[in-house]
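Retro notes, item 3 of 5
We never archived the inputs for the calcium ion complex last cycle. Fixing that now. Sequence and ligand:
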Amino acid sequence: MTTEHWWRSAVIYQIYPRSFADSNGDGIGDLRGIVEHLDYLNDGTSRSLGVDALWLSPFYPSPQADFGYDISDYQAVDPAYGTLADFEKLVEGAHQRGMRVIVDLVMNHTSDRHPWFLESRSSRSNPKRDWYVWADGRDGGPPNNWLSSFERCGPAWTRDETTGQFYLHSFTPQQPDLNLRNPQVRAAIREVWGFWLKQGVDGFRIDVAHRLFKDGQLRDNPEPLAAYRRYHRHPELRQYNLDQPESHELLRELRCFLDGHGPGLLLGEVPISDDSRLVEYFGADGMHTAFHIAFWEQPWDAAAFRGTVDRLSGLARPDALPTYALATHDIPRTVSRYGLRQARVAAMMMFTLRGLPCVYYGEELGMADSPPERALDVDDRDGQRVPMQWEPTGAGFTTGTPWLPFGHDIGTANVLVQDAAPGSSLNLYRRLIRYRRASTALRFGDYESLDSPAQTFVYRRRSPEEELLVALNFADRPIVLAIGEGPARLELSTDAARSAGTVSLRSVPLGALEGVLLRVG
Ligand code: GLC
Ligand code: CA
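Structure as it came back at the time:
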């Protein structure tokens, strides 16, 4: 496991530990549950999914105000999820199967129950006061006009009774923002990096990498931007509570630190849909890669997807690779956004673009969102976090009562049933991942989109060894495409009923909502 740049051709699989597999019947997924299912993810044969790396959402001690993204101890495992010894087994088991492990690094904020914050809030003169962002109010209100990113949380400031000052929280009031300008905080955070690298992790997913620094003078966001909770494009105006240049310095420091430990991966979460800003965050000496946020914000429209992929390809540094996800724990699932057959076409697109594909657990089954009757999450994201559906009965996830009810689609969107059905979504994912693994054009090749009729997206992937064409029909009616001259071999289709064989590039028939992969020559 020492290959350099392993990440450049990796397929990543996101596990939301609470929802993947529960080993002790308390209804909450845990680390041992993950260990028990490693073979499903990659057992070295074509029967498993075949992913290369696991990204684990936070499993650290947390009061769960934001389901683990509010951390009260950076160097331990929440008892609900297990122990450090379990984590060690997880890393060992993953490595034995050729999978890397990436953990979530949440540096922007801690939990309000973290001992650092308890100290910081205890008095204005506490040595840790400056570890967080404290300020006096203005005219009886918060220090400035910044908003929390969550609709339900109001302003980004909460007044603390003990000292009468306000503290900054970019998310919930239970997630105070750290002051990463303070050298002691930087040192403490560096210790966290070292700790997890010593546990054998192969890299980090960087939570809200664009938020790590805010304007030192805490200036108001200019009027047209003041109403936006997230990043908003306004090229001539500066947004003071995010996307500050200092973030890049810290990320470069982390990159050096990581490189000093071996070939690791920094995968950035940079929720900025403005690609010209996003590209500043990955490639070169910053993070290796970052999620292409605009990609998952597109409507079901071929031109929209082509446009966003081409725009980012044109702006990014030549050898920088974005990460393409269709779903995460923060956004509605693909099937719910686009539909079941659309999701198969989207999957073919994700696995054949130039970048790192990232699969959200259960996506391979075509699981849909199932919001519970009573919301638990502060930002209404429960629907996409329902437990993994291993079997139609819910067995496999837990022997107890799941922390969130299973989806209404559990009868069909489950591993047991789909494993046995050749045309299932699960088997399509397995085929796509296996094909990608064997293809130098898909793993390392260049990308070029081709002009094609409305509601189709056609592109070429080429390496010195092979040339592939991908043709995706976004429309709900068949079409015949002229893509070039000569014969090609149809290698894969999202339509399980369609068999491989030779086609003429002069007229390639595509079914309604069908995607195909063709080998030229
Ligand atoms: C990231 C996480 C999200 C969390 C937020 C605050 O966006 O993906 O789940 O709520 O950061 O940590
Ligand atoms: Ca459990």
